[in-house]
Amino acid sequence: MKVLLVGNGGRENAIAHKISESPSFKRSGGKLFTAKGNPGIRKYSELTCISPDDIISLAEFALKEKIDLTVTGPEVPLSLGITDEFEKRGLRIFGPSKLAAEIETSKVFAKKLMKEYNIPTAEYRAFKKEETDEALKYLNDFTFPAVFKADGLAAGKGVIIAGNIQESMEVLNLFSDEKNLKEAGENFIIEEYLDGEEVSVFAVCDGKDFVMLPFSQDHKRISDGEKGRNTGGMGAVAPVRKFMTEDINNKIKERIIIPVLKAMRESGREFRGCLYCGLMIVKGDPFVIEFNCRFGDPETQAVLQLIDSDFLGMLQSAAEKNLKNYKLETNDKFSCCVVLASGGYPGEYETGKKITGIDDITGNCFVYHSGTRYGNKENEVLTDGGRVLSVTGISDKSMNDAVKIAYENAGKINFENKYFRKDIGFRQLKNNYGN
Ligand code: AMP
Ligand code: GLY
Asked: How remote is the CA of residue 251 from the centroid of ligand 2, in Å?
């Protein structure tokens, strides 16, 4: 079986690893290509030099190479219509169409859909960029904090929480400035702040049926204790055992995933791919904070090792609208992914720093490459992004053990200005909250 994976990051490195371990892939003597990949992904696949956003060249490549299944990691190619381009040519692909991807790319669309179908989410109002007076009026009798969200894609940087009217005015100024958020800032929403436990849920969907993968928890803020600026994600753990009861599990399916798939079908945007539900659990009830149209990063690096059934088979069944015949099997392991970032991220940072120590890792640990590239010397790997490496520790015993494995190995890897959070997984550790 020939598979093409689209993307360059830690998520794609974890997907490549899992595809290469899939029984259906191995049985068929499978071959994996990645566009365009990175030094970590190269271990599992042949890299091509096509950019993930060049969807026409990707489709031509898939036709030429007779690719059986293409798997898209990031949201940008999906938002550009990679699935539509592939399907036009009769090529099989995992990932939603351009219209279905709007569930992530337009917060305004997603909020409207949720309201119409009674899917629990924070109360909100949508505004155009120039409607700052209306926004201020809306905030007059608002119970702060208020959450501001730019409408389009902003790489995790389009959400700002304001504690009072003064801070809100600063956000409105920022959003009204063309330069700051480019097209992401054309429209924005203001919504109520939800106070609870955040959890990431991946539902692999074929338009109608779905499988829900083990829950995970991301740490989005740059500093320990959930402080500082929002990032793409500084680390993640899976599964989420604390507070996630069977009852909440059922509510997520009944109140969120089933109705949203129905809503998408009824609006002509059948969703096939990974529906990422960013949820806030408030007093035992799930509320949607955001939907994404793809696997999360770095949650994927933590979640995939908990799957025992054929991963590639799952993606293929979803693409072929045949998920009802797929049986998901998971294991009882614990997984913790710590992201090593370039100092300065999510603001400005330098790249091109030499990375050492990757070969020194020990124990049940995988180092997935998020932002790296080859240097000029043989086997030299350099930093090439804000998030550089995703160090994932796996344990059969406990979350505490998985966290320990991840941090022991994170400490062995070095590059200039390496930065990482020291408290990934703290919510899921024993002895936290006194138990
Ligand atoms: P988003 O890009 O929508 O996932 O938002 C980024 C982060 O902002 C989320 O992961 C939450 O931690 C936080 N956030 C977003 N919306 C809300 C909300 N309504 N209430 C509380 N926190 C929120
Ligand atoms: N970790 C958050 C995301 O992938 O959007």
From this structure: 22
Please tell me the pTM assigned to this model. 0.94
Q: Which residues contact 103 (CB under 8 A, 6 or more apart)?
A: 96, 109, 110, 113, 260, 264, 269, 271, 275, 291, 292, 293
Domains of the chain as residue ranges with CATH: 2-98 (3.40.50.20), 130-185 (3.30.1490), 197-325 (3.30.470.20), 334-430 (3.90.600.10)
Protein residue with least CA distance to atom 3, ligand 2: 296
Q: Which two tokens stand for residue 42?
A: 């190269």
Nearest Cα residue to atom 4 of ligand 2: 296
Q: Is 122 in the pocket of ligand 1 (CB under 6 A)?
A: yes
In tens, the pLDDT along 163-204 reads 999 999 999 888 877 565 555 556 889 999 999 999 999 999
Distance CA 310, CA 323 (A): 12
Which ligand gives the minimal distance to the CA of 234? 2
